[in-house]
Amino acid sequence: MRAVDIIRKKRDGGKLEPAEIAFFVEGVTRGTFFDYQASALLMAILLRGMDDEETAWLTGSMVDSGRRLDFSDLAGRKVDKHSTGGVGDKTSLVLAPLAAACGAIVPMMSGRGLGHTGGTLDKLEAIPGFRVDLSPAEIRDSLAAIGCVIVGQTAEVAPADKALYALRDVTGTVESVPLITASIMSKKIAEGIDGLVLDVKTGRGAFMETIDDARRLARSLVAVGNRAGVRTNALITAMDAPLGQTVGNALEIVECLETLKGRGPSDLETLSVRLAAEMLIVAGIAGSAADAEARVRKALASGAGLQKFTEIVARQGGDARVVQDYGRLTPEPARRRSVGAPAAGYLALLDAGRIGRAAALLGAGRSRVGEPIDHGVGITVRAKPGAHLQAGDPVLDLHYRTDETLALALPLATGAIAISPDAVIPGPLVLEEIR
Length: 435
Hints:
Elements: H1 3-11, H2 18-30, H3 35-48, H4 52-64, E1 79-83, H5 92-101, E2 106-110, H6 120-124, H7 136-146, E3 148-152, H8 159-171, H9 177-190, E4 195-202, H10 211-227, E5 231-238, E6 246-247, H11 249-260, H12 266-282, H13 289-302, H14 304-315, E7 335-340, E8 345-350, H15 352-364, E9 378-381, E10 388-389, E11 394-400, H16 403-415, E12 417-420, E13 430-434
Parallel strand pairs: 1-4, 2-3, 4-5
Antiparallel strand pairs: 5-13, 6-9, 7-11, 8-10, 8-12, 9-11
Helix pairs in contact: 1-3, 2-4, 2-8, 3-8, 4-9, 4-10, 5-12, 5-14, 9-10, 12-13, 15-16
């Protein structure tokens, strides 16, 4: 088998065979499929696409490039949730402890933020001492002890994905649905889970800006998951405006804790409960949507979800006192600057993409892998789309350290706001279900 023949075949619109895909993935993992050849094949896949079978074969080969975690000896169904990324998207930190409190085993492998989207691991590291780099043995011990762990991808899981993503990032091939599917699902299948819930975002703050693109991705992800024996459902959810009221790592931890205490914003609570309920359904713990939501609501109202979050923090080396003392998250408070409504009227738009980029410029995110972030900066949303405002009423609060970062972020934050003289009715949070 030769790399050039595989490249030509896909370039000309042919369907790759399992052996050809395995040859490609193994070569990328070992370094015998050179970067320039891999880049050419990735571009051919972007332009020519892959059918469901090819995508499933690519995913399987990427799973086989590393180690499959096996938690079959632990009693209970293992289930995870994955989001395609958004602004203020902090549901993992609410739903993981809620699902675990309802009896699910949740081995959650999460990622870091890049660009305008936030990362679960970055948010958790705002908690002093919190460890996200647990070994497979430590992951197993945490699952056995408390039923939940939230960690980064281990080096043993789908190493081909790390090599391929690095190439996709610099060759303009990130947007390919088959490549996105294989990247996400290879890591999830290798986790050793029985069920998976996907939150596919669409809108101004999402990678999939149109509902059609989001639908194509959701269907691809669900098809590959179920083909691999992982019961998989997806929700397509709106990401035109930030979710909840905060964007930024420590700010979002506080908001999640407030939500687990029953005092959080309604959109964050509603979506977190809905996704946690879906996790109970795919795990076989609840037989219906009504039963699943009732169980999750009970865990929220009783404080069981908050207690589970506290156990997760303590188990992974974090300072659990932050659950009641938020000051431990940001010992050095940031400065604050408000951005007001430019005119009287109804808030018609709060552009999540612009707000996410503004938060990153303040230091809450990164523009390249490995760049340090400031956990204490970010943006607070003071008004949501549909609100009636007077000119100058606060819409956003920018939490910043330096005048330089404020000057960079302020134009984006100001440009994220649009006012209409006519009443605005916000659209639904959940747009579609793919089962």
